[in-house]
Amino acid sequence: MNQTLMKNRSFKLSHSKKIIISMMTCVFLISTLFVGCQKNNNKGLAKVKLNEVVRSIFYAPMYVAINKGFFKDEGIEIDLSTGQGADKTMQEILSGSADIGFCGPEQVIYIYNQKRDDYPIIFAQLTQRDGSFLVGRNKEPNFSWESLKGDTIIGGRPGGVPEMTLEYVLRNHGIENGKNINIITNIAFTATAGAFKSGTGSYVTLFEPTASMMKKDNSGFIVASIGKSAGPIPYTCYFSTKSYMEKNSEILKKFTRAIYKGQQWVYKHSDQEIATTVKSFFPGVDEDILTESIKNYKKINAYAQNPIMKEENLNRLMDIIQSYNSSLLPKRPPFDKIVNNSFAEKIVEEFK
After folding, report:
1. Which of 18, 49, 74, 129 shows a CA-CA span of 20 to 30 A to 253?
2. Cβ-based neighbour number of residue 131 at 10 Å
């Protein structure tokens, strides 16, 4: 009888082990299948390495295009990296580390004038005004540029487009750095808001969302838009090397279509909806700040409605550069040499 009990117990234990092993095998197979499916989510997509100059809510239409799946709809997987500077973004393109660059077109102009064989060419535009705001210590509903005479402003990096655009606006109002205004240009871009809060300067130039964050904690208030005062310029655009464009025209066409969808989506949706869509790109920033930032950019028509670059707007940017320092731009490149609007024009025509 004891032997019979032992056999029954042995059978039950053996049977239990088999059940446990079977269950574990099933879990493993399901997990493997799930992971495999996740890994294959992007299977068949063409990977495009995109380098952006900085991370900014100013570029909301691009982040919308990514998060809404407009690139994936075109068969493209975006591998996004951040250059932290227009010169660094350009270097990523020239070295072949990135396929498409995203920064100001002035970099394309400078490289073309260096007579490089495989020079970069612009194929789409995202923003159409300078994205910086003049922030003061008090609310100034009746602000005028002329009132800045004798003041001190924390500006941008010498030779950078934000600083050049600021000085262009000031000159148009009879104000010149070193004569009747003092512009501080030796503070790092990421430290200008902190310097202003610490008591430096009467005004500071800031991009969003920093400007709206200053307003929220009552440490600064937007008094003017530099972009609105300067007029339309192609502030940020997409470009690739000439050789990449020749070999990957279909990719660039699809890329441009996704960007255009993002631009149109931004124009058709509310500030709140846009903020909710792109907030994953800005961890730690309150959604209400993002909403306010988008509202401020839409108010000055900063986001281009389509990716086509206008020659007169690029000419205005070159006016700004040459008025700041003519040696930076001794020669103006022909528009059709550094800009290829064919992709953007075809895409816009498709949606009519």
Report:
1. 129
2. 26
Of 68, 117, 66, the closest CA to residue 241 belongs to 117
Amino acid at 151: D
Express each pLDDT in 76-96 by its tens digit. Answer: 999 999 998 899 999 999 999
Q: Within the chain, what is the greatest distance between any pair of CA atoms?
A: 111
For the cut 50, the answer to whether the pLDDT of residue 330 exceeds it is yes
Of residues 2 and 263, the one with the higher pLDDT is: 263
Average pLDDT, the chain: 90
Order of all β-strands in the sheet with 152-154: 182-184, 152-154, 203-207, 132-136, 221-225
CA distance 68 to 84: 25
Q: For residue 241, which phi and psi values (nearest 5 degrees)?
A: -70, 160
pTM: 0.85
**pLDDT band at 9; cut points 50, 70, 90:** very low
Domains of the chain and CATH, by start = 46-129+233-350 (3.40.190.10), 132-230 (3.40.190.10)
Respond yes or no on whether the N-terminal peptide bond of residue 61 is cis (omega within 30° of 0): no
CA distance 119 to 340: 13
In Å, how far are 16, 154, 340 from 131, measured between CA atoms? 68, 16, 24
Amino acid at 22: S
Task: Give mean pLDDT, residues 149-177.
Answer: 95
Contact 111, 119 (CB under 8 A): yes
- Residue 75, SS3? coil
Q: Are strands 132-136 and 221-225 parallel, antiparallel or unpaired?
A: antiparallel
Residue where the block lists tokens 């709206």:
212
